[in-house]
Amino acid sequence: MTTSPNGYDLATKDLDPPFAIVDLDAFDANADDLLRRAAGKPIRVVSKSVRCRYLLERVLSRDGFEGLMCYSLAEAVWHVEQGTTRDIVVAYPTADHEALRRLAASEEARAAITIMVDSAEHLDLVDAALGHGHPDIRVCLELDASWRPLPGVHVGTRRSPVFTAKQAVSLAREIAARPGFVLKGLMAYEGQIAGLGDAAGSGVSNSVISWMQRRSAAELSRRRGAVVRAVRDLADLDFVNGGGTGSIETTGAEPAVTEIAAGSGLVAPTLFDGYSRFHPRPAALFALPVVRRPARDVATLFAGGYIASGPAGASRVPSPYLPAGLKLLGFEGAGEVQTPVTGPAARDLRLGDRVWLRHAKAGELAERFDAYHLLRDHQLDRTVPTYRGEHKNFG
Predict the structure, then answer these.
(1) Burial (CB count <10 Å: 0-12, 13-18, 19+), residue 171
(2) What is the distance between the terminal CA atoms of the chain, rounded to a whole angstrom?
(3) Judging by beta carbons within 10 Å of its beta carbon (0-12, 13-18, 19+), is residue 16 exposed, middle or buried?
């Protein structure tokens, strides 16, 4: 006897796995929760966490979501060409000369896109790609938001070399003095708060993380406020961006911040299960078929080795979701061509049955599938292409 079909099984019974779905009811509920947590501050949607134009356009059509934060300049230019939005910040500096030439050649793109810089060398790179006398390029200055409580101690992501108000003012002056550049924004991403769950480990480790995040948030609020005040004396900033899905409350509370970046909270991958402040609904799942029964309590699935980026470890592997009561084998994990699962529910699985899994990160699932099958009320609503399905690979 096979396991009883769940609503996802029934809605997709005519599809052959492997395939991926997005539950629109969960996606929309997560969007509502992001807006609630933002408390009126606009949210800039982080495209890397979605990587599907239909879903990006869906969330941008809602009040409270304003503009995209893209991870690639080529991606940003493409979205302008597709009419997705006229407000895009590229979150990472670019060394893509071709994309820079496309940006400079399009008045529409130049008006819509702000690129990221954190040093004069980035300005030099743009000049080298475009030549002197190029049209004005909108730039955003990135402030490093890591926490440095003691000399030599760095807590957070390794991003900008600009850490102090003095350093930010120096770079802002350099930008103002360089023809062809206009400083329009400031960004700081507090990865040690936004990307680190405070309820994912043991009680002791959770307490340590919460302690660190409170102190880091307080220090960053003071420092970011000082930086913004100093830079605003030199430039007419359109926006000050901060945060991420995991830090919406603390980032949004800062008067200096005008908008919050978020994206993963729409999809709710497993890395966002470990937060005490919010509990999003899993929206993106993928189905794999059972193709072997090597033992009574083991079922082997086809493919499945969709390992997330970041530090290698158990937190980066996909997790069985439905039917409940399954887990990966520690020796094999999720494999390139097969993924064994075990647990009480494995005994009832038969060849051809489906197992539903969740990815560890939000947008990377879209790099594995050409399409997302969208469900509403456990009914198949439509099928839409991912970036991959539109033959777009932005690195």
Answers:
(1) buried
(2) 45
(3) exposed
CA–CA distance, 370 with 373 (Å, rounded to integer): 10
Instruction: Report the C-alpha gap between 269 and 358 in whole angstroms.
Output: 6
CB 361 within 8 Å of CB 264: yes
Here the tokens at position 252 are 């949004």
Within the chain, what is the greatest distance between any pair of CA atoms?
Answer: 74
Q: Count how many Cα atoms sit within 13 Å of the Cα of residue 113 in the half-sphere of its side chain.
A: 34
* Alpha-carbon gap, residue 109 to 111, rounded angstroms: 5
Give yes or no for a contact between 275 and 284, defined as CB atoms under 8 angstroms apart: no
Backbone angles phi, psi at 71, to 5 degrees: -100, -5
Tell me the mean pLDDT per 10 residues along the chain, length 395: 72 97 98 97 98 98 98 98 97 98 98 98 98 97 94 91 97 98 97 86 86 93 97 97 94 96 97 91 98 97 96 94 96 96 97 97 97 96 98 92
Report the candidate in 94, 48, 7 with the shortest Cα–Cα distance to residue 386: 48
Question: Cα torsion for 90, 113, 30, 23, to the nearest 10°?
Answer: -90
CB 262 within 8 A of CB 34: yes
Q: What token pair was written down for 72?
A: 């690639």
Burial class (CB in 10 A: 0-12, 13-18, 19+), 193: buried
Does the global pTM surpass 0.85? Answer: yes
Of 356, 188, 190, 210, the C-alpha closest to 274 is: 210
Cα–Cα dist 242/46, whole Å = 12
